[in-house]
Every structure is written in structure tokens, then in C-alpha cells.
């Protein structure tokens, strides 16, 4: 059939550019050691930065949640799917990040992707004269949210504080929204949030912060980028995900109560979808206890030690380890094929690291995205570092024909 032939030919085009993506089926819980096709691998590719995804206290809370609330919510939040567990989680989240906001409320979403679509579409819908200012390296969900907002979007350069100042200064929009990742998901570096917030306050703009990779890992108490930078402002709209460092699933937006009520009333990705299973919200209460308590602090300290060990041990030629201080530690190789060859060589050695290619990253900047977790031991990170050094030396020798 002609329609199928066209799709097949598109897929062939992806294959020719080494852009076909494949899924591996994992047979064990998410953790540093996983089994794939009956083989045990050391995994450095999940976003389970604190090693909580299979934490016994959290899985026990999840079981308890299903006993208390059953398996599914049965309806959207505004019909009958909003349970006591969702409400309790939202109250806890508002208390957790509230000190950085003014008159804070929080709203739980099924995913971070949906939360980002919700924030940008709902904030933009409030005013026809809206302009969105989006960081060049923002996550796909923010890019899609800005598109769905059907309002002019200006992309400012990565960390381009001066360029943003100029764009905001020349904008005539009455409703300005600046949106940025806090920790860039494919680079691991931090956005200059204090400078961005100062600009937003100067120009009367919202600052939407996507802290998908900071919540739980940054800040003394794991409260994320707002705590790390000690930010306080009514202009902040904060999105944190709960399926990464928090180890469970979903996401939340925290902001001034009026912003949150606007989301409840206007945000289609909140209104027109079945509420997440209440048991997830119940389990997340235990995640928050761990993140905010002594165990969370110990896990963050251990993770920081692993990051230092990684940087100390690397001996790379031709490849570039980015200067990230977070759990995301990319090694830029450049070409798609070489990146996938490096990932395959590591896999042969029993080490699973993701190869990231365009469009997730800009052309010619394909990379290994190494992620470290508090669940890893120093010995496991030593094995990773040795393996990457070996694969790099071997591939560089082959490239040079020596
Ligand atoms: C920066 C960023 N924002 C948002 C998301 C989406 O979150 P979720 O996986 O909960 O949909 C992700 C990753 O998935 C991300 O890396």
C-alpha cells in the first residue's frame, strides 16, 4: 500500500542516518544493576538519580496505597478522580517548595510533559497579548507547550542573559513568559536562574522553571533549583518531576495559588485526562520523607562523590566530557554512528549507557549520556570510567589507523 510504503521509506531514511531508536526490555526493577535478555548489566542511563525507584519503603507505600485506594482513579480530577492521596501530596509539595514562592499551592500531574504543556498554554490563554521567551536548549515538552500556546515565541541563546534582557526590553507584550530548564537534560549544566529571575522581575515577566532534573538532587534538603539558588519570588512558576529523583511517577507545578487555580480551570492537559492512580501519590509521600530527611542528604552527598570520581578518572582523547556537576554527565562524540558504536562497545562490556542523537541534541553533537545515581557504588563508577577510557582509546586508535 502506498501509504505504508511511504512510512517504510521514512524509516529507512532514519536507519541510513544511524537515527533509528530501539527499546531494550528490562526484566528487573530500575536500579544500578538490571537484567536485559537474561544478561546482567551495569546501568548508567536512568534518571533515578537518588536510587529510589525500587526503594523498599517506597514500594511498600505503593502497595499500601493500592490497598487504601485501589488500582486506578477512575476519572479526571474535576469529575471524581481526585482522591485524598492526591490532595495530601499536593499539600506536602506546596509546603516543600513553598518557602521559595508566595502564597504557594501545588498541583499533581500525570507526567512532566503534560505539566509543561499545561503551564504554557494556561498562562498564555490568560492574555491574548502574550509572548514566550524560550531557552535554546529547552526540553521538547517546553518547546511543544510553547507551540501549543499559539502565541509568538522568541528563542534566546543558551544561557544568554544579555540577549534575553534585550528581547524582553523590546517586547510590547503585556504578558511575558520566560521558560527554561533548570538543569539541562542533555548537558547537565545549570541555567543562570538568579540572573533570569532578576530580568523577569525587572521586565514584569513570569519565570517558568522546569526542574525535572533538579528536584530531589539539588539543594540542602533536595528542594531543587529554587533551594540551590535560594530564589524567592511571586513571579516563579515551578515544575518538578516525580518519576526521576523521586523514583515514582508524575510531576507537579507549584506557584502562587492564583496561578494554580488558573491551571485547574484552564489547563487542558490537567482537565481532560484521567487522574494518575492515587497509590502513586501515596507512595510519593514516602519519597518526599526520604528526599527531605537524613537519608536523602546522605544519598546526595554520595552522588556528589561519584560525580567527582568520574571527572577525576576520565582520560579522553577526541571526545569531550562536559563540565557538569550534576548527575547528568554527557560525553560528546559528535557523529551519530561513532556515538552508537561507542554505546555498543560499552554494552558488550556489560555497561549500559544511552547514545543521544539529533533531534534530541543539535546536529554533530551526538553524545553518550551517562547518568550517575546514589544507588551506584564507587567500584561500579570505577568500572564505568575504566571502560569508557578503554573504548575511547580503542576507537581513537582505529580512527587514526594506528
Ligand atoms: C527537562 C525535562 N522536562 C520535562 C520532562 C518530562 O517529564 P516526564 O518524563 O515526567 O513526562 C523531561 C523528561 O522526561 C525532562 O528531561
TrEMBL record:
The keyword Transferase applies. GO terms for molecular function: 8-amino-7-oxononanoate synthase activity; pyridoxal phosphate binding. Residues 40-388 form the Aminotransferase class I/classII large domain. Pyridoxal 5'-phosphate binds at residues 112-113, 185, 213, 241. Keywords: Acyltransferase, Biotin biosynthesis, Pyridoxal phosphate, Transferase. Substrate binds at residues 21, 139, 360. SUPFAM superfamilies: PLP-dependent transferases. Catalyzes the decarboxylative condensation of pimeloyl-[acyl-carrier protein] and L-alanine to produce 8-amino-7-oxononanoate (AON), [acyl-carrier protein], and carbon dioxide. This is 8-amino-7-oxononanoate synthase. It comes from Pseudoduganella lutea. The lineage of its organism: Bacteria, Pseudomonadati, Pseudomonadota, Betaproteobacteria, Burkholderiales.
Amino acid at each position: 500500500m502506498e501509504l505504508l510504503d511511504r512510512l517504510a521509506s521514512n524509516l529507512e531514511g532514519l536507519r541510513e542516518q544511524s537515527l533509528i531508536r530501539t527499546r531494550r526490555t528490562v526484566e528487573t526493577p530500575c536500579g544500578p544493576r538490571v537484567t536485559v535478555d537474561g544478561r546482567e548489566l551495569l546501568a548508567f542511563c536512568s534518571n533515578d538519580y537518588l536510587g529510589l525507584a525500587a526503594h523498599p519503603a517506597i514500594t511498600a507505600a505503593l502497595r499500601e496505597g493500592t490497598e487504601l485506594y485501589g488500582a486506578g482513579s477512575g476519572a479526571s480530577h474535576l469529575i471524581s478522580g481526585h482522591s485524598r492521596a492526591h490532595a495530601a501530596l499536593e499539600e506536602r509539595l506546596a509546603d516543600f517548595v513553598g518557602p521559595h514562592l508566595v502564597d504557594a499551592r501545588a498541583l499533581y500531574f500525570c507526567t512532566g510533559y503534560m505539566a509543561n504543556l499545561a503551564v504554557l498554554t494556561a498562562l498564555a490563554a490568560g492574555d491574548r497579548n502574550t509572548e514566550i521567551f524560550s531557552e535554546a536548549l529547552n526540553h521538547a515538552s517546553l518547546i511543544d507547550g510553547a507551540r501549543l500556546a499559539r502565541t509568538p515565541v522568541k528563542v534566546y541563546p543558551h544561557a544568554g542573559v544579555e540577549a534575553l534582557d534585550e528581547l524582553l526590553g523590546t517586547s510590547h507584550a503585556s504578558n511575558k513568559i520566560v521558560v527554561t530548564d533548570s538543569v539541562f537534560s542533555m548537558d547537565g549544566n545549570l541555567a543562570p536562574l538568579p540572573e533570569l529571575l532578576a530580568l523577569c522581575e525587572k521586565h514584569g515577566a513570569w519565570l517558568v522553571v522546569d526542574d525535572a532534573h533538579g528536584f530531589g538532587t539539588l539543594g540542602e534538603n533536595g528542594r531543587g533549583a529554587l533551594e540551590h539558588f535560594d530564589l524567592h519570588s511571586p513571579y516563579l512558576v515551578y515544575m518538578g518531576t516525580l518519576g526521576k529523583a523521586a523514583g515514582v511517577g508524575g510531576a507537579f507545578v507549584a506557584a502562587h495559588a492564583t496561578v494554580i487555580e488558573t491551571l485547574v480551570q484552564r489547563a487542558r492537559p490537567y482537565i481532560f485526562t484521567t487522574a494518575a492512580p492515587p497509590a502513586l501519590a501515596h507512595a510519593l509521600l514516602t519519597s518526599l520523607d526520604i528526599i527531605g530527611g537524613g537519608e536523602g542528604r546522605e544519598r546526595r552527598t554520595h552522588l556528589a562523590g561519584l560525580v567527582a570520581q568520574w571527572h577525576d578518572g576520565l582520560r579522553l582523547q577526541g571526545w569531550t566530557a562536559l563540565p557538569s556537576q550534576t548527575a547528568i554527565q554527557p560525553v560528546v562524540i559528535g557523529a551519530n554512528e561513532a556515538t552508537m558504536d561507542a554505546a555498543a562497545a560499552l554494552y558488550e562490556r556489560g555497561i549500559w549507557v544511552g547514545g543521544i542523537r539529533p533531534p534530541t541534541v543539535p546536529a554533530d553533537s551526538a553524545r553518550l549520556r551517562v547518568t550517575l545515581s546514589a544507588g551506584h557504588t564507587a567500584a561500579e563508577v570505577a568500572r564505568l570510567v575504566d571502560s569508557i577510557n578503554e573504548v575511547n582509546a580503542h576507537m581513537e586508535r582505529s580512527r587514526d589507523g594506528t
